[in-house]
């Protein structure tokens, strides 16, 4: 694919990677074919990179950074700098003179940078750094107007206006200002004043109509007393009307004697619901309702309130009410009931009509609107303040991110650790540099196992278990003989902090050709050792069993059978044949070796060793050649676009083996060294000499 930029590539990991050395290289990345990018996406968590910078690059906030987002970040930062090479240095400071103010956004960023320095007490400073932006949120929140359109009570000097804002918060709620303090925005203020206007108009209607507030301020209490008994009083007069319609209804409508008998068994009180269900008074045809006596005790208190708050002020000191009196009393509250039904929704009414009229007449609404407008007016300036932080972070971090994304230059050159390397694990006399953070071991192992690495998953804790994490460490040198679940080591993260590490899972793959060479012999040795242990355990058990039953066997043992000569002759013949066959094989091997010339014997032994080890070595070689970093990173959410192989020499550099320091003095005297028993070696040598003499004597070497 033809491009206007001349690219340089370097080869590492078995594939070509782009070499990024200048700001021009970064700006031209939009022209580079994405098939040549090592990665197409990476997570914003679990990697050793500034999280705030990744959040700014991750424009859709989905937790992943992709190609287009990196290109957009480079293009934006490059457009605000006079020299794109400033993106390469990695410094966290920026000279004001290097900001390109030719565009509207550039002018805004430059003005904001100067504004920040001025507020920090450095109006004459010629550069700004991330240290100046260390607490940008606190800085922005401390401004009198911070651009969020929220006004807080604590920033209002006028006591009356402050009290109004506090009342608004009480009735209409609040939102958090950038400082964290509760305040109001235009939406809350508009809602409150709309409710206040509606309530004030509604209140004015009641104040201006004598039929509504017929008892003035006491109307509401009187209406509540009326409604508390309205249904019960209506029930009483209806029962009396039925008794007038049919005299026979008076007794059952007053409840029967049996109903009272059921109540008699209960512990009665005025609050008993069964008592409250009885009629308000005894039923008779056209009987008025007595207000003082003869009432159901469960309703006596509410009827007293009705008489004091509604009947006495409107009908006089009556001791009873007729049906007509009751109907007239209810009619007097009809206008009030309609007015109450029209009460506007909202909480502004809790302040009361007098307070609302005071607020509406104070002009505070216009003052609050003006304060919110002033705050909102600096929104662009505050946003530009954040753009200054963004530009400083991009200037410091974009070049490093590109060399861990577009190419894996940091990883393959070894000059710096890659952003996916979490730290170093020390375990089993080795240091593992290829360690990545893992959130789900089972999920990660399912894909990472295809990479061909010997991986040890370790749970790491520090601070007594207060901090925890899991890492996957790749062992790429040495062997896996003593790697097992439960072994402990120390993990040092990128900040130099130490963690207690314990292996919880192992993915076993060949580590080296050397390990593969010795693997058959180790397996044979292990098998022989296991068989010997089983045989020894079996013999020990048999001896214990015989000793436990010795006395019983002595008393109950059957007579020995007569010696069977034919049977034992067959056994001895079989043993002889076996020994003869083994001896023949050994004689053939020894004869073949001794039949060679002296200088050919070591070559023959070496060939035999290679014949045994070659299959495992060849298999290990193919697996080691196929080791792929992509599987480990893909399992962590990366989108690796290349076959990032780890060959044998590079893999060996990722795991350090224990070595004595150069120039160190070493004493071989070990006071606790196990003393070797030499007689088995002497026995083997003697057996060999006897065998050679026997072969010579029978003419095997052709002297006869």
Indicate the percent of residues in helices: 40-55%
Which regions are unreliable across 5 or more consecutive residues at pLDDT < 50?
A: none
Oligomer: single chain
Question: Major beta sheet, specifics?
Answer: 8 strands, antiparallel
Backbone structural class: alpha+beta
Shape: elongated
Tell me, rounded to a whole number, the average pLDDT.
Answer: 83
The fraction of residues in strands falls at: 5-15%
Head-to-tail CA distance between termini: 83 Å
Strand order of the largest sheet: 14-16-15-18-17-12-13-20
Q: For the CA atoms, what is the radius of gyration?
A: 48 Å
The strand count comes to 20
How many H/I helical runs?
27
How many structural domains?
Answer: 3
List its salient traits:
eight-stranded antiparallel sheet, 12% strand, 3 domains, 704 residues
Question: Can you give a write-up of this model?
Answer:
With 704 residues, the chain is α+β, with helices and mostly antiparallel strands. The chain folds into three domains: 9-142 and 378-411, no CATH class; 216-332, no CATH class; 420-541 and 584-657 and 691-704, no CATH class. Helix content is 50%, strand content 12%. The protein is built from 27 helices and 20 strands. The chain has an eight-stranded antiparallel sheet. Strands 4-3-19 form a three-stranded antiparallel sheet. A hairpin with a 4-residue loop joins strand 17 (488-493) and strand 18 (498-507). The longest helix has 36 residues, at 513-548. The two termini are 83 Å apart.
Structure summary:
The protein is α+β, with helices and mostly antiparallel strands.
